[in-house]
User: Fold these one by one.
Assistant:
Number 1:
Amino acid sequence: MTGLARFERRARELLDPVHYDFFAGGAGDEVALADNEEAFGRLALLPRILRDTTGGSTAVTLLGDACEMPIFVSPTAFHRLAHPGGERATARATAAAGTVLVTGTAATTPVADVVAEAREIREDATVWFQLYLQPDPEVTAALVRRAERAGCTALVVTADSPVFGRRGRDDRNGFHDLPPGLYAENMRDLPGGADRVRPIEMSGAFTWEHLDRLRARTDLPIVVKGVLHPEDARLALRHGVDAVLVSNHGGRQLDVAPATVDALPAVAEAVRGRIPVLLDGGIRSGADAVMALALGATAVGVGRPVLWGLAAGGEKGVGEVLELLRDELVHTMALCGAASPGDLTGDLVTRRGAPR
Ligand SMILES: Cc1cc2nc3c(=O)[nH]c(=O)nc-3n(C[C@H](O)[C@H](O)[C@H](O)COP(=O)(O)O)c2cc1C
Ligand SMILES: O=C(O)C(=O)c1ccccc1
């Protein structure tokens, strides 16, 4: 077994099957979940030859933060359900890999502790905060303040969850709550709920106006997560958003959403280089990352691969997953004649079975 599959298999062996299903599962018939990965399999890379790639680099700058590779850790809930080290272990390994960790509202470790842990490994470690806007604006404001005070350098606002996706595996398994002792720690001691952990609320009432209000309240760059329609990318630009993240929530929200790599070109076309376009969903190898970068992404996020590394081996496991992806990325870039991420252009991507 090659690559990341080894980590997933190990995670499945080690995890409670109910928790494995929570991490692995998607919405409905898991159409989008499967398509995210399959869509990369429908693509091929058309390499360029005889280009000097020695002395190349995988480094990128993301919203002002230096990043050693264009692969970051997308926000996923409940890391302490995967491994006792939880988000602390993920933070240490991600900092060691020199890339961005997106922690968030559903972390089982407080954001301040996540940032502190990352900075213990590397003083300039980058942590961003994924925000679920909450119906009570005071609660949202408190979460933002918490992220700012912790030292997060961007907010990632998840906009694809007006309602919580219907996850058949969780319904069948009766998994709806964290086990005793685990909590969404960032929801603790918020306005109107001192000494308790508030539930994370999803709401369909949010609009671009709420993003304007957030924009007015914080100096942090804002990433909108869950953009699939090019018109929403244009709206994001109009509302002063700093980056868009093309995502279908790992197939956990709208089951019939397109694969993210299929949605990417139209979004990149709408954005026309004015702000970074990020992507997550189905990235399982360095070659997948290369394809998405060539199609217009500035960087790509990984969700489940990090959870599998965490479950399989805590900090060490996450480190191995990120190093494997980095190694594959470097190797694939060299084979394509690309010395840096900027050399990855759309002409390198073709449909499998139909070379140009
Ligand atoms: C178990 C799990 C929990 C997640 N929790 C969140 C979350 O709290 N907030 C969020 O914006 N996205 C969440 N996501 C979506 C991820 O940020 C990301 O979009 C997705 O996992 C990317 O797809 P991949 O798992 O194929 O890499 C979650 C995904 C998984 C698998
Ligand atoms: O599972 C998820 O995808 C997710 O986004 C989430 C959000 C809040 C609590 C638990 C999970």
Number 2:
Amino acid sequence: MVTVNEAKERIIANTETLPAVQIPLGEAVGSYLAADVVSPIALPPFRQSSMDGYAIVHSDVTEAGTSLLLAGESKAGQVDLPVVSAGNAVRIFTGAPVPEGATAVVMQENTSVTDGFVRIHEFPVWEGKNVRRAGQQIAQGAVALRAGTLISPGAVGFLKGMNVNEVSVHAKPRIGLLVTGDELLKAGEALEPGKIYESNSAMLQSGLAQAGIAEVSISYASDDLDATIEALRVLLEQNDVVLASGGISVGDYDFVGKALEALGAGTIFYKVRQKPGKPLLFGKKGDKLVFALPGNPASSLVCYYEYVLPALKKIMGSKEPFLRSVQLPLRHAYRFDGERDEFLKARVEGGEVVSLDGQESFVIGSFAVANAIIYLPVAQNRVEAGELVEVHLLPL
Ligand SMILES: Nc1nc2c(c(=O)[nH]1)N[C@H]1C(S)=C(S)[C@@H](COP(=O)(O)OP(=O)(O)OC[C@H]3O[C@@H](n4cnc5c(N)ncnc54)[C@H](O)[C@@H]3O)O[C@H]1N2
Ligand code: MOO
């Protein structure tokens, strides 16, 4: 049995980031950059107006009410531009090039036009007002995004704007998922005595999809040693990471541990001093990782968020693989006995956190409405209302 921290350390120490692959930017959301991206151009590429109004020489405006001669126009995309000289103003629009000679733009709401003259109703107008400098967002040749950055929609917009259409990201792991349990029914089958509907595979697959891993091979094995060995053998051959659900405790029909042993997978740890999820096993066969997740749905999902997801994020190149952790006051007092650290399904609401009803490991309904997990080490087993606790935010 290892502690929570030791389990996390061993996982990170035994997890390698996958090599880089070049992919179209349009497919990169959810991937992590494998190399710094250097901007091939300055952004903006030229001086731009940030307002619809008039481009002027700022020092011409000596008082509110100064009149300037209207001398041409610059609209977005225009190539041939007038030059702005002292005493003149050029009509200009948002995003349009600021003509040579102009040092500021006055928004049109602060002007009035009569007989070919523009009256400026503001004072002072400083140099650079309403003008976006060339390279103000990023200079040509500067690092736009660092290796390890998650490609988000914002990152896609940023890179597209500099005409970067392909990126070097870390490859995503191929995941194999083994579902065990003779009591499990597939979707649509009629409910029978002693049976339940299988839900862990879809739950884990949704978590993986949210982490940007769409392809998961799922196998099912009956509660039988040979069937479990064969299914795991194939999954280990064809994937980078294998997850197994159920069959990892001490019952007579729990075969996942024995099957991994028979396949020569080394155990890096078995059992974590935690509730739920105690019987978690983490092992390795060559460079393939195996997580045997306890079958209880809430145990399975806690282990997924706290251990599997960080491993997968490190494999994909994330430099911050664990759930974001914050300290928040607990709304209610909470006590527990026993020797295991606790992970509580929780909701962060209005600057505090509340633990939800239904903390048993077979209860998944509380997870369905949770947005966080509270982590309470044994040393903090008597928490008063308002006391700070460690909260891990779910990636929702
Ligand atoms: N004598 C002991 N018994 C148990 C111990 C122990 O230390 N000594 N540990 C308990 C703990 S803690 C957990 S957690 C479970 C883990 O058991 P397994 O990983 O072997 O899981 P199963 O027995 O196969 O299933 C447990 C539970 O979850 C349901 N289940 C399983 N798979 C699915 C699925 N795909 N979808 C939905 N539900 C699933 C299953 O029907 C069981 O109710 O062991 C305790 N026992
Ligand atoms: O660890 Mo089990 O998940 O307590 O029920």
